[in-house]
Amino acid sequence: MNTPVSADAIARAAALVAAADAIVVAAGAGIGVDSGLPDFRGNAGFWRAYPALAAEGTAFMDIASPAAFHENARRAWGFYGHRLALYRRTAPHAGFAILKRWGEAKQHGCFVFTSNVDGHFQRAGFSPGHIEECHGSIHRLQCLGPCSPALWPATGLEPVVDDVRCALLGPLPACPYCGGIARPNILMFDDWGWNDTLHEQQAGRCRIWLEGVRRPLVIEIGAGLNVPTVRHFSHRVVLRHGGSLLRINPREPHIGKLPGIALAGGALASLAAIDAVLAAGRA
Fold first, then answer.
1. Contacts of 270 (CB under 8 A, 6+ apart)
2. How many whole angstroms separate alpha carbon 230 and alpha carbon 43?
3. pTM attached to this predicted model
4. What span, in angstroms and rounded, lies between the C-alpha atoms of 137 and 79?
5. Dihedral of the CA atoms 8, 233, 42, 78 (nearest 10)?
6. Which DSSP category does 264 fall into?
7. Which of 147, 144, 154 is nearest to 183 (CA)?
8. What does the angle CA 240 – CA 243 – CA 249 come to, to the nearest 5 degrees?
9. 146: preceding bond cis by omega (within 30 degrees)
């Protein structure tokens, strides 16, 4: 059980924000919890959200894979169609706006690195050119094959899903180039067909941006150890670019010997508390 975040820790975090010349937001699934999105920690949490998959013992790693599309495309699109609708109707919480405002006030601005596929940073107004989606996005589609490196937006896709059976109703999304089955442009488990063309462009822009900063603060939020991609990125930025780390994580907050501070709290409450200290300092 986490102890309450102390006022001293919040003040130290605010000092890190104030001293930085750039903000790097490194976000995992935990940042979306305050928006009302599920945080799949183990099969128990996943199966509560998808009882049809629980009934047959299908784990998250099994449905979130290209193999699921090859074996039962309607079941796979039932899962991803439900997620697409959920992400579309869920609004990013106020913490996103706080992060955006902090970044806009810095000399070198802000860059986002996220494993989330929900597109919420774009919806919150962050520049698409300053976002790296390391696992892709549910709002883009690609061929399951794939037949080509083409990507296209999912804006016209309105999947109708039988939530009880976790199955897509109506026609399967199709590749406009070969007529085969389309899939989300998301890096899944055991995925050798992910089209990473756009991600590589995003990663290149991130590398160039990082070369120009001197005192970056990595604000890492809701990134766990099960899939540690975001945490590894945070560590690289701190070690290679002279940065500091502000890790906000209610369960796994520790930062070891890295410079910075850990807050064992939720995203919105922690960001709002830091913002209040910064505002008081400006008054």
1. 5, 10, 13, 248, 263
2. 21
3. 0.95
4. 15
5. 120
6. -
7. 144
8. 110
9. yes
Q: For the residues of 136-150, what is the DSSP string, one character each?
A: EEEEEEEESS-SSS-
| 215-250 tens-digit pLDDT | 999 999 999 888 899 999 999 999 999 999 999 999
3-class secondary structure, 245: strand
Measure Cα distances from 108 to 103, 148, 178, 210 in Å: 8, 37, 43, 9
d(CA 119, CA 128): 10
CB 144, CB 183: distance < 8 Å: yes
Q: In degrees rounded to 5, what are phi and psi of residue 12?
A: -65, -40
Residue-level length of the chain = 283
CA distance linking residue 133 with residue 202, whole number of Å? 7
SS (H, E, C) 11-52: HHHHHHHHHCCEEEEEECHHHHHHHCCCCCCHHHHHHHHCHH
> Which pLDDT band, with edges at 50, 70 and 90, does 1 fall under?
very low
* Cβ contact 199:133 at 8 Å: yes
> Quick one: 158 exposed, middle or buried, by C-beta within 10 A (0-12, 13-18, 19+)?
exposed
| Residue 274, H or E segment | helix 267-282
Binning the chain into helix, strand and coil, the percentages to the nearest 5 are 45, 20, 40
- The answer to whether residues 46 and 241 touch, using CB atoms and an 8 Å cutoff, is no
| DSSP track, 47-95 | HHH-HHHHHHT--HHHHSSHHHHHH-HHHHHHHHHHHHHHHHHPPPPHH
